[in-house]
Design brief:
By secondary structure, the chain is an alpha+beta fold. About 30% of the residues lie in helices and about 20% in strands. Helix 1 packs across helix 3.
């Protein structure tokens, strides 16, 4: 297997760090109030074709469907990266091309997760955060130069040890990158 290019390494590092930050934020703000449901019919139709979180906890040997059923006009993701632990899915990073606004991405997630949106992030123009205690699921939406990025973490499947190990690895990688610049 050829070595990873610098861009691929950076994307993997950013992906890992983002899901760790999303997980950490859900630990810090577990009991904040949530925002209201969308009110109009138009707001209840997702512009993004959303990730199917039902795969979390399933084995890589199981047949899975990565996305929720399509509705005409929805934007499909450009890339989906899934995270595995002991052969089971527990997190995913989904990247959509910027053909819809950040606000549209938030509304899309709120078609399903509105009651779980963290109130202190509901009006944040750069990040949205949802925490579903019943399903032990955290979701974060951000954007970079090219993509809307949605990260899903099934935090009940992420052990404290794995979290600490991953965070340590991501921090070492960032330190190496800083030293090279």
């Amino acid at each position: 297997m050829p070595p990873l290019g610098e861009r691929a390494k950076k994307l993997i590092m950013i992906h890992s760090l983002c899901y760790l930050v999303a997980f950490a934020l859900t630990l810090m703000v577990p009991s904040l109030a949530v925002s209201a449901e969308p009110t109009s019919h138009e707001e209840k139709i997702s512009r993004l074709r959303l990730f199917n979180t039902a795969i979390f906890g399933k084995s890589t040997a199981d047949q899975i469907v990565l996305l929720k059923p399509a509705i005409p006009g929805q934007l499909d993701p450009e890339t989906i990266m899934v995270d595995l632990d002991k052969g089971k899915y527990f997190a995913a990073t989904v990247r959509y091309p910027k053909k819809v606004s950040f606000a549209e991405a938030r509304r899309s997630l709120n078609t399903i997760y509105a009651k779980h949106e963290k109130k202190n992030f509901a009006d944040d123009p750069t990040m949205g955060l949802w925490r579903n205690e019943d399903d032990k699921l955290a979701i974060q939406v951000t954007e970079d130069e090219d993509y809307l990025v949605v990260i899903y973490v099934k935090f009940s499947l992420l052990t404290k040890e794995k979290f600490i190990k991953s965070l340590g690895r991501a921090m070492r990688d960032l330190e190496k990158e800083d030293a090279q610049q």
